[in-house]
Amino acid sequence: MNQPGTSSGTGAPAPYSFIVRIEAMTGEPKFCGTGFLLSSVHVATCAHVADHAALRAKRKAASWPLLVRCGNELRRGTVAAVCDPDGVLIRLESPVSEEPVRLLVGMRAGDEDALEGHGAVIVGFTESVPDTLVESPVKRVVNSLGNVATRQLCEIQIEGGRREGMSGSPV
């Protein structure tokens, strides 16, 4: 197993180098899902991805350590915050050199067509081919939730969903 901080060679290539693989800390790393860099030491993913890592590592959920692969770098991380209903923030033990994702903010209810019409894709790693970065085009938004008062887009559901392991992938 590569030690944290050493080269692994299975990270995401440019322009998706902000996408990371979340793995369980076991004898050999076991793929659990996808996440993305918010800063050089913070990763966002789904809570159920971190829970899956805890189960694979046979650890208690309150203190589970994770491995995060970013480009050619491997870091240990721990859950720093849980965001309902299914999000977590992972803090890495040391910074990575890749640039974080640039987030699109201010999406409003009614903006869903922009995802379909501008070539939006879901990018991440899947359970079936965990060492290969894959992408899936957003063909159609079938459902969405928006805040009535602010019109902020809170949630979208994409036709066909996404492959197992791509939870936590950015769109």
Task: Characterise the protein shown here.
The structure is a single chain. The chain has 171 residues and is mainly β. The chain contains 2 helices and 10 strands, in the order E-E-E-H-E-E-E-H-E-E-E-E. It has helices at 47-56, 112-117, and strands at 19-24, 30-37, 42-46, 65-70, 73-83, 87-92, 121-125, 133-137, 141-146, 153-158. The strands form 3 sheets. Strands 1-2-3-6-5-4 form a 6-stranded antiparallel barrel. A two-stranded antiparallel ribbon has the order 7-8. A hairpin with a 4-residue loop joins strand 2 (30-37) and strand 3 (42-46). It is globular, with a radius of gyration of 16 Å. Mean pLDDT is 76; it is low at 1-9.
> Which band does the percent of strand residues land in?
35-45%
Instruction: Kindly name the structural category.
Output: mainly beta
Overall 3D shape: globular
* Main beta-sheet strand count, sense and barrel state: 6 strands, antiparallel, barrel
Number of helical segments with 4 or more residues: 2
Q: Number of DSSP strands?
A: 10
What is Rg? 16 Å
Helix and strand sequence: EEEHEEEHEEEE
Overall residue-averaged pLDDT value: 76
Strand order of the largest sheet: 1-2-3-6-5-4
